[in-house]
UniProtKB/TrEMBL annotation:
Stated name of the protein: HAD family hydrolase
Any single Pfam family the record assigns to this protein: HAD_2
GO molecular function, one term: metal ion binding
Keyword RNA-binding: no
UniProt entry keywords in alphabetical sequence: Hydrolase, Magnesium, Metal-binding
InterPro entries linked: HAD-like_hydrolase (IPR051400), HAD-like_sf (IPR036412), HAD-SF_hydro_IA (IPR006439), HAD_2 (IPR041492), HAD_sf (IPR023214)
GO biological process, one term: small molecule metabolic process
SUPFAM superfamilies: HAD-like
Keyword Metal-binding carried by entry: yes
Cofactors: Mg(2+)
Length: 231
């Protein structure tokens, strides 16, 4: 198999690491604080409510348009207000607690533990992430030469600008770069707009949403990438 790519960039959250479990753990700590003031909310403050609030916050602000503390506060405000709790100080404190515990239980997926070191023997690897998760303390950190975080470069996926920035950091042409990500909007559309080949890691076997272009490749486990790139 001919090797066409010099660099492989990965998304981080839900591609290499179990973001959902870590985020829900951090929300649990914030929820415990809220129940000290509003114990009657115990049944209502669910992980699903938190997920919907995260999505609503993303729709309103994207990932990087406001400072992270403000983003977390707005997310918690969206959690609380439908329950009749209009307490911005509580929302701010919950956001701070959430931020304190984010990344404390971040777990690398087993397939990533196996795949990343093998790819790193042949390719330069990079991270390209919108989120606040960080790879530096994870067991796979040593294998990544390039790290491009949206808040640091001033652009976020699906803007092609962050992909162009990643190519510049790696010193490669767009056609020499392969990108692996799980997001339909952020990753598939973003890579397509930048003219970069996309491997969609579809762990939960979702259907493509209306208006989302078909990715160049679709896999359900990172080990399947070896059918796409030679090692």
């Amino acid at each position: 198999m001919e090797r066409r790519h010099r660099v492989i960039y990965f998304d981080l959250d839900c591609t290499l690491v179990d973001y959902e479990a870590d985020a829900c753990h951090a929300f649990g700590k914030a929820r415990d604080h809220a129940l000290g003031s509003y114990p009657h909310l115990g049944v209502e403050l669910t992980d699903e409510v938190f997920r919907r609030a995260r999505q609503a916050t993303y729709i309103q602000y994207g990932d990087t348009s406001i400072p992270l503390r403000d983003w977390y506060r707005e997310c918690m405000r969206i959690v609380l207000e439908p329950m009749g709790v209009f307490d911005i100080e509580l929302a701010d404190r919950m956001g701070q607690i959430y931020g304190l515990f984010r990344n404390t239980t971040l777990r690398v997926f087993e397939d990533a533990i196996e795949v990343v070191p093998k790819l790193a023997r042949v390719y330069k690897l990079g991270l390209l992430s919108n989120g606040s998760s960080r790879v530096e303390k994870l067991q796979i950190a040593e294998f990544f030469t390039y790290k491009v975080y949206a808040r640091e470069v001033g652009h976020e996926k699906p803007s092609p600008e962050i992909f162009y920035a990643a190519a510049r950091v790696a010193g490669c042409k767009n056609g020499e770069m392969l990108y692996v990500g799980d997001g339909q909007h952020t990753d598939i559309i973003g890579a397509r707009n930048a003219g970069i080949e996309i491997v969609w890691i579809n762990r939960t076997r979702e259907q493509l949403l209306a208006g989302i272009p078909r990715p160049d490749y679709e896999i359900h486990d990172l080990r399947e990438i070896f059918s796409i790139v030679p090692v």
